[in-house]
Specification:
Layout lengths: L35 E6 L6 H14 L4 E5 L3 E6 L1 E2 L1 H14 L6 H13 L4 E3 L2 E3 L3 H5 L4 H8 L24 E4 L2 H6 L6 E6 L18 H18 E11 L9 H11 L3 E9 L25 E8 L16 H7 L3 E3 L6 H4 L7 H11 L5 E4 L6 H8 L3 E6 L2 H12 L7
Parallel strand pairs: 7-14, 8-9, 8-13, 10-12, 13-14
Antiparallel strand pairs: 1-3, 2-3, 4-6, 5-6, 9-11, 10-11
This protein binds S-adenosylmethionine.
S-adenosylmethionine binds next to strand 14.
Length: 418
Amino acid sequence: MISEVIDPTTQYITKIDVPIIENNVNNEKFPEDKYKKLVIPSDIPLNQIEVKSLNKIQKKFSKNGFQLDIERSRIILYLQSIDFTAFEKYITELLDAEDRTINKTLFLDMINEIAKIKSYGIKGKKRLYVTYNKERKVEGRQSKVERRGLYYYARKNNFSKKNNDLPKKVENLIINSDSETVLKQLPDNCIDLIITSPPYNFGLGYDTSKDGVNWERYFQKLFSIFDECVRVLKYGGRIIVNIQPLFSDYIPSHHIISNHFMEKKMIWKGEILWEKNNYNCKYCAWGSWKSPSSPYLKYTWEFLEIFAKGDLKKEGLSKDIDIKDEDFKKWVVAKWSIAPERKMVQYDHPAMFPEELVKRALKLFSYQGDVILDPFNGVGTTCVVAKRTNRRYIGIDISKKYCDIAKKRLKEVLPGTD
Ligand SMILES: C[S@@+](CC[C@H](N)C(=O)[O-])C[C@H]1O[C@@H](n2cnc3c(N)ncnc32)[C@H](O)[C@@H]1O
């Protein structure tokens, strides 16, 4: 307890005759990770009335996770949470009632400084100021993760950890054949990353393959190719499948495919929404108009399902990372807004994915020098981007015409230009 008195000539405190709050407030008691600290300076030393008022405020709001450190010419606020509306009201009323000498700016500064800082959420009427993670921290997180069983469906796999080199004769090659046949000839564990967009079975007019067959036949063929993909992937390798369900047939292809990979003990690494912003679909072409009878949901996006073989981490040298800081920050947000490919007429293919989509996937999930495979290569978008970003590639498509276009595109690409 400090005892001071007012200097009658100045009205300012030389000795305070009211207790400065005895809560031993200091940085140790209110560490930065648990309290937000705000310093409110005063041009002139605090007077007795101001100190009394501050003590009242402290008493009123201490239960809120609010502490005051009153010093001679400044006050320090330590905040965990506060009912800001009540705080603002209380101070305003206090100032209105106070007709004696009081530095109102000091009190208004308190309100303004608190208003400026970002709160991390609301609990009841209180705004929370300590970090979001701290507030939401799960006690014993690690043991809970173990109890739940991290990617339990992918445990007890028989994947070999021994990776093999891709045979030189197929490196940087476009192969015109059925993927299942070609992949069967490749060794196990020789591909770093697969990115592909299979036919969606919508009934598109591809050059050679028949699109729009019985769903069971479709998935059977798709899975025989995907099973080979899993086999040829390196331990730690990834497969990214761009897929659009056929909503009008009520076939959730993305779930059916994901389920298959999980049955094959692949780890679901995540899903990216490819937002195409194509709002041209009709409101009721397939369902009811303005009626709950059967409203049809509209989708302006496609999916990228990402699976890892054996390990979520992929080995690589830091010199081979080619993603920029800013891009990394943007692309890990798993919703990518990218316009659909505009060169489909030029390349005479009905269902290309855009180069930007492949570029992001390659830079985010693979290293330079990695081997990239596309078993539904079309006119070679994957291979073009792989070459441009200094990766090796292998592209397979059943159509000779598409393979020829892919080869022509690749001739025009200079490595290291992206
Ligand atoms: C959606 S397209 C891929 C387009 C590609 N992403 C692009 O940007 O050019 C699917 C491709 O799979 C090919 N395809 C269909 N069945 C195949 C099979 N069994 N083996 C290899 N390719 C096949 C089709 O010819 C078609 O070009």
